[in-house]
Amino acid sequence: MKQVFTRLTALRTPKVRAAAISVAASLGILACKYAAYLITGSVAILSDTVESVVNVVAANVALTSLLVAVQPPDATHQYGHGKAEYISSATEGALIFIAGAWILTTAIQRLLNPVPLRSLDAGLIVLAAATVANYLTARLLMRVSRDAHSIALEADARHLQADVLTSVAVFVGVALVRLTGFQRFDPLVGAVVSLHILQIGVDVSRRAIGGLMDPSLPADEVERIRQILDAHREDIVEYHALRARKTGVQRFLDLHLVLHRTLSVGQAHALCDHLEEHIRSDLPGADITIHVEPCGPNCPRCSTKR
């Protein structure tokens, strides 16, 4: 029952709503592109339609990963489920790459064996409408991904941006065929854009795999943590073994804190709580583990209190 409630609550979060919009938009755009293919018989538009099939799959993967990622820690996943977003992003990067390879292969085949197109005006209108819808959806997803620090939504947005580029190239190619009658304009433009799509797929996959490798926090965030600790130099002797990593929106950090050995357990605990609150005020949601050590026998402050 608790998991059901968590999922229902997740549906109200901006990033899950955006992912659900992406699924619905991808289905509508796929229908439009397939209609454009039926109208024109364009293999380039068919390849664009195939990429939209990949978009639908990718959007569903992103939505599923976000629903998994919001689940609270449990007995088997005590650090939460945030890495599900990276798995989604890696999957989407692979799908983008496959779509780019498909388009490049189709373009080469079309260059070798051009096929006359038909009903280009109607097909171009339907394709233009689908492209505009794709662009608006990609902008929404990118904005929400930045606000929510969601790599899964960012990958989905970049996938749709790649699809927009494909559609624009297909539109230009088909329009040039319409204006000049030269059939090879269509596959030539598609081949050029497919190379860019392949690069996007590689970049998205690289970022996702990097996230799975537990990268350190950005240098500016680590410096902010050090500044907070340095601001409490009157209360602590020193700190060392500071480690910090980030998984999605979650931050994990641990350190060894040397305190004056004359402090009681209660005083040491209160000081650690204060430090954790100070760090979380600057880095919300940080998961902090502090290992306390006593100062050495030569500590000037503690030796005077014997």
Give short descriptive properties of this protein:
Alpha-lytic protease prodomain-like; 3 strands; Alpha-Beta Plaits; 9% strand; 2 domains; 306 residues; 10 helices; single chain; 3-stranded mixed β-sheet; mainly alpha
What does this protein look like?
This protein has helices at residues 2-10, 14-40, 43-69, 84-112, 120-148, 151-180, 185-212, 219-230, 265-282, 300-303, and strands at residues 238-247, 250-259, 287-294. By secondary structure, it is mainly α. It folds into 2 domains: 2-212, Cation efflux protein transmembrane domain (Alpha-lytic protease prodomain-like); 219-303, Alpha-Beta Plaits, CATH 3.30.70.1350. A 3-stranded mixed beta sheet has the order 1-2-3, with helices on one face. Strand 1 (238-247) and strand 2 form a beta hairpin. Helix 3 runs antiparallel to helix 4 (84-112), helix 3 (43-69) runs antiparallel to helix 6 (151-180) and helix 8 packs antiparallel against helix 9 (265-282). The longest helix is centred in the middle third of the chain and has 30 residues, at 151-180. It is elongated. The model is unreliable at 4-8 (pLDDT under 50).
